[in-house]
Amino acid sequence: MHARAATALPLLLSMLAPPATPPPPAAPPPAADLPQIPFEKYTLPNGLEVILHEDHRTPEVAVDVWYKVGSRDEAPGHTGFAHLFEHIMFQGTKHIPEDKYFAYLQKAGASNVNGSTATDRTNYFEVVPSSQLELALWLESDRMGFLLERPSFKETLDNQRDVVKNERRQRYENRPVGMLPEVLEAAIYPPDHPYHHSVIGSMADLSAASVEDVQSFFRTYYAPGNATLTVSGDIDRARAKELVARYFGPIPAGAPVVRRAGGEVRLAAPKRIAMEAKIQQPQLYVDYPSPANFAPGDRELDVLANILGNGKASRLYKRLVYDLKIAQAVGASQQSQLLSSTFEITALPMPGHTLDEILTVIDDEVAKLQAAPPDAAELDRAKNQIESETVRSLESVLARAERLQSYNYLLGDPGFLPEDLRRYRAVDATSIQRYAREVLNGNNRVVVTVEPNPDAPIMGRVKK
Amino acid sequence: MKSSPLKKHGILAGALAAIGLACAAPAARPAATPAGAAAASPPPAASAPAAAAAPTPAARITPDAPFRQQPPAAGPEQPFHPPRWSRFKLKNGLEVMLVEFHDLPLVDLDMVVKTGSAANPPDKAGLADLTARMLVEGTKTRGALQIADQVAALGATLASGSTWEASSVVLSTLTKNLDPALAIFADVVQNPAFDAKEYARVRDNLMTAIVRRKDSPPTVAGLALAHLLYGPKHPYAWPTTGTEASIKKVTPADLRAFYEANVHPNNATLVVAGDVTEADLRAKLETAFKGWRTRHVTARKLPPPSPPAQTRVFLIDKAGAPQSSIRVGQIGIDRLNPDYFAVSVMNLILGGGFYRLDLNLREGKGWTYGARSSFETRRAPGPFSAGGEFVAPHSADSVAEILKEVNGIRDSDVTDAELARAKDQIVKSFPARFATRASALAQLVDLAVFGLPDGYWADYTKNIAAVTKDDVRRVARKYLDPAHLAIVVVGDRKSIEGPLGKIAPVELLDLDGEPVTAGGEAKATNKTASSETQQSHDERRGP
Fold first, then answer.
1. What pLDDT, in 10s, does the model give residues B223-279?
2. pLDDT tens track for A42-64
3. Chain B positions in Cβ-Cβ contact with residue A140 (cut-off 8 Å)
């Protein structure tokens, strides 16, 4: 059975007006039918980038601060610190008592409050009624300007260290095959690469974190010149600018940040790692180091992942799950990151079938894409799915803020959305074949097998 | 485009490179946007990075100011009214609810059939969900893969399944593809094939996923709690997705019979949110559902539940587990209970993010990444549950502190500050419930499934605002009963059994929730329904 001819899928987003600032001169003008998120970007004298997006659909506003720091900035012996520090940011400042951060926001009617740490950035956000914009700016500016002037860090650091250790237990150690990401990171990235260690970090490094580390980390990375503030939603832009200047303007700039070096990784020879865990059924992971986010090949690999392993219309699903019935589930994804990415295929076998049976079929399907380009209908279908998924992801004021933030961080242009979509539309069938050959190459991969063993830990371990 | 470009590992979601703080609103995950990406061109391959030499950074002093001393006052509040929705009936009796959103060219349709997993016979848990799943696995004219291919080619999504009180088929499509997408949607609702070969594949696949539930301690704990609270004769005791034993018994004829008994326009509401007008939608639906006919639907009665006679600890061994999954529970309230609003406020103060349980067990003791409580409301009273994942050496201490908080909210009034914070949080965040298509759709589905009046959402904030301290205390005493709790602990038996025994008598269960004898063998009793004791609504914590 084959897909019927795919419908081309241009989008018309009448509501989203053209951006307040023009697209970068280097890029060709985007097609008129591509969605845009209108915005205004400017920089305060202290270096803080500010992005405003006005949207009056609902009386709410998202305040979203990105700091350009993540686990990749951690030196050996300090793993997990960027994330531990993120927790400390919620524990109070000179003007905000311990445990009041959430209380203020909840009483104000916040519908969403959180922070998250990744390899390359840390974010903090709250979605509040638009009448409470000033409260959110007060809170965010106080932890950017006055974090260190709170009474004492000792107790709160000890407490949050325990909380984070429990987070590590919950997300990794007491979770089926929870050690997998750390095994993969260590296998893919050399010891001196910034992605060699996990975001959560090791228990030993968490134990060693000191109050001096907190102070030094804050002074190095948590300065206006290393941050971007996005305010998205029901705002009056002039009033928002006034408030931003009042709360963030007086914070001193800070010194330029020196970063750890690290680039794209390719493996010269394949690796195979056998793990075992206290689980019922085996699992298979096939990881190919791949081009960094927005590097040549990255978008093509997104499309390739869709063709291979996204949903019931994908090649691997049809072969492994539908026809042969040797896998219970299969998926493929290009996991893009700033320095280097991973193209990952995962599969779970049906009882009575081995991981090697499945791997043989995966290799066969990859070989087919290396031998011949996908047909037009299949390519269109993948692009349609990617494009409509993007439109679905643009709805909430927080989602819009995050998208402006990420384009700004990665490319210096918050308004890159239409150009990004244009690049997906431009992916052609032969380029899919080309990157299948270049990246999904048998030498450039790590295969991890996980077999059940009732005596192994839940999180799994590498077999001796 | 990367909807979630932060690094995630595959279908098992083994890891997240972005780590959230586990905050208040459980519905709100950390937004995932591109975390990676090189500006322009990335550096060439591999090697030679050096740790940044960290110069001692200088202190930066931000000048203080009077306006920073106190939280700023709120600005003028913007009035908010839930968006208007319309309700109309097709000629065949199908009720339609529509809320229009024209800012994005998208339409979501949710066919809500008002019979769900609560209608499963106790020995055929999973029947409703399997019936719903099979709708998209082939019709009289479209094969399973044809449906998948056609939906994907349109850039649409189509999913089906059942909750406790409803079965649904959900379509999301671009407005311009509404006609072809609606044709597929109407076909799967009206003409399912229930093909035996396709069913064997779906069932075997599901069976394999069910076996894997035993791997995750939180899942095992949640499913065991449901089984203990309701007893094997009650459908709520079993997971909506069924058990190994129960889905073995479900035949294609069962699916057909369940479908014929329940999936009719008079037992359904089609809820629509998005970029379409009433006149346009009505015309399209009359065509798409022209042949669908009304038929009699029999309402089912639930048997009485059989909860434990007194508070006990039920321990499930996961040798060597670094954390214990703890669920303290009992049967709570149904969705139409007049105390719903007071219970919502009470539960938020007890177990909302950064309220009592969290402040004590996370922020105070540091024993957990998050301690929460929830009342799951259904047509019949659903479970109350309080707990989380706690560091193994403090398992019994954690149970004791949870019990202390449960007793605390019964034994004395909440403070004015707690009450105001909780009520304000619910009332002032109300507009967010209608901020997106998906969230607005969910509010209308809630009305449809439980038969709530059209004015329900208009009055919602008033009802929350009216809750008093006395109400909170009253419903805490009424619905939290420390003498009749099931305390489920999944963890390292060797190190935690002794201390747990000082709290209440300990009964050992196996991974399927069945009693274990002193010798460690599962008893041959209580196997009538199935050996599984799992229920799938475990992860929904908090209000």
1. 999 999 999 999 999 999 999 999 999 999 999 999 999 999 999 999 999 999 999
2. 999 999 999 999 999 999 999 99
3. none
Window 295-324 of A: residues touching B by CB (8 A cutoff) are 295, 302, 311-313, 318, 321-322
Residues of A in contact with B212 (CB under 8 A): 176, 279-281, 348
Question: CA A185 to CA A192: how far, in whole Å?
Answer: 12
Contact A391 B105 (CB under 8 A): yes
Residues of A in contact with B24 (CB under 8 A): 102, 106, 110, 113
Can B85-288 and B312-509 be said to share one CATH topology?
yes
Instruction: Give the Cα-Cα-Cα angle A438, A439, A445 (nearest 5 degrees).
Output: 130
A58 closest CA partner among B38, B306, B439, B522: B439
Closest of A53, A88, A142, A60 to residue B69, by C-alpha: A142
User: To the nearest whole angstrom, how far is the Cα of B217 from the nearest Cα of chain A?
Assistant: 8
The answer to whether B78 contacts A311, with C-beta atoms less than 8 Å apart, is no
Contact yes or no for A7 and B436 at CB 8 A? no
The neighbour count for residue B13, using CB atoms within 10 Å, is: 10
Alpha carbons B483 and A373: distance in angstroms, whole number: 67
Q: Where are the domains of chain B?
A: 85-288, 312-509
- Interface check for A259 against chain B (CB to CB < 8 A): the answer is yes
Domains of chain A, with CATH numbers? 40-248 (3.30.830.10), 271-462 (3.30.830.10)
The bridge status of strand A327-335 relative to strand A341-349 is antiparallel
Q: What is the pLDDT of residues B404-437, one digit of tens each?
A: 999 999 999 999 999 999 999 999 999 999 999 9
Which position has the token pair 């009180």?
B165
Question: Out of A90, A312, A410, whose CB is closest to B34?
Answer: A410
Q: Are A199 and A71 in contact (CB under 8 A)?
A: yes
Please state the rounded mean pLDDT for residues B143-162: 97
Report the C-alpha gap between A452 and A458 in whole angstroms. 10
**Residue contact A384–B152, C-beta within 8 A:** yes
Which chain B residues have a beta carbon less than 8 Å from that of A330?
A: 11
Question: A49-54 and B19-20 as β-strands: parallel, antiparallel, unpaired?
Answer: unpaired
Calpha distance A221→A71 (Å, rounded):
12
Q: What is the CATH code of the structural domain delimited by B312-509?
A: 3.30.830.10
Q: Mutating which of A114, A183, A455 best tests the B interface, going by the most B Cβ atoms within 10 A?
A: A114
Query: Considering Cα of B199, then A320, then B219, then B315, what sign does the dihedral take?
Result: positive
> Contact B306/B228 with Cβ under 8 angstroms?
no
How many A-B residue pairs are in contact by the CB < 8 A criterion? 496
Token representation of residue A11: 């989008």
- Inter-helix orientation angle B469-479/B416-428, to 10°: 90
Hey, of B4, B6, B8, B9, which one would you mutate to test binding to chain A, going by the most A CBs within 10 A of its CB? B9
- What is the average pLDDT across B518-543? 33
Where helices occur in A131-274 by DSSP H, the ranges are 133-145, 154-168, 180-188, 203-208, 211-221, 237-248
**For residue B507, how many C-alpha atoms fall within 13 Å in the half-sphere facing its CB?**
17
Torsion, Cα A90 A228 A108 B388, to 10 degrees, reads -40
The CA–CA distances, whole Å, from B427 to A42, A111, A127 equal 35, 10, 14
Return the CATH number of the domain spanning residue range B85-288.
3.30.830.10
Angstrom distance (rounded) from CA B120 to CA B246: 10
DSSP B18-34: SEE---S-TT-PPP---
Cα–Cα nearest to B267, from B286, B291, B293: B293
How far apart are the C-alpha atoms of B29 and B366, rounded to whole Å?
Answer: 22
